[in-house]
């Protein structure tokens, strides 16, 4: 039951991400490479959706990117106690889909996962799937 809800949220986020990225990039020049696209996601896309940039972007230059948000908006309201940590995945599933959908529309197939170690900070790991 819980897994089905998370899948549904992730799929909804995917569709929303596709639509948003289409709107945000219509007047943008073509991206040079994968890293350029990830920078766009971290700066422009994140700022438009969450009113702030990603705090940290890391890569191993082999198709894995880690986006870190130290004060993720969807978790700040419930970050007072540890009791909500188990529910964080529901709030992150939609955002994982958002990132995956945006990247998909820019021609990048990916797997996006999220982890929360201490609220409201979270990390999104993006694994690029080579075609």
Automatic annotation (TrEMBL):
GO BP annotations of the record are: endoplasmic reticulum to Golgi vesicle-mediated transport; nervous system development
- Location in or out of the cell: Endoplasmic reticulum; Golgi apparatus, cis-Golgi network
- Keyword annotations: Endoplasmic reticulum, Golgi apparatus, Neurogenesis
Q: Which GO terms describe its cellular component?
A: cis-Golgi network; endoplasmic reticulum; trans-Golgi network; TRAPP complex
**What is the first-listed, main subcellular location in coarse terms?**
endoplasmic reticulum
Instruction: Enumerate the InterPro entries for this protein.
Output: NO_sig/Golgi_transp_ligand-bd, TRAPP_component, TRAPPC6/Trs33
Similarity field: Belongs to the TRAPP small subunits family. BET3 subfamily.
Q: What does this protein do?
A: Component of a transport protein particle (TRAPP) complex that may function in specific stages of inter-organelle traffic. Specifically involved in the early development of neural circuitry, likely by controlling the frequency and amplitude of intracellular calcium transients implicated in the regulation of neuron differentiation and survival.
On assembly, the entry states:
Homodimer. Part of a TRAPP complex. Heterodimer with TRAPPC3. The heterodimer TRAPPC6B-TRAPPC3 interacts with TRAPPC1 likely providing a core for TRAPP complex formation.
Identify this protein by name. Answer: Trafficking protein particle complex subunit 6B
* Species per Swiss-Prot/TrEMBL record: Muntiacus muntjak
């Amino acid at each position: 039951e819980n897994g089905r809800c998370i899948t549904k949220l992730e799929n909804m986020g995917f569709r929303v991400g596709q639509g948003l990225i289409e709107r945000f990039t219509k007047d943008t020049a073509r991206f040079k490479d994968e890293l350029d696209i990830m920078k766009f996601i971290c700066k422009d896309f994140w700022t438009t959706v969450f009113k702030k940039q990603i705090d940290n972007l890391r890569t191993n230059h082999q198709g894995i990117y880690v986006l870190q948000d130290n004060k993720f908006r969807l978790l700040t309201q419930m970050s007072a106690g540890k009791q909500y940590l188990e529910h964080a995945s529901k709030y992150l599933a939609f955002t994982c889909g958002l990132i995956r959908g945006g990247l998909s529309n820019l021609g990048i197939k990916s797997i996006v996962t999220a982890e929360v170690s201490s609220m409201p900070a979270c990390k999104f790991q993006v694994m690029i799937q080579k075609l």
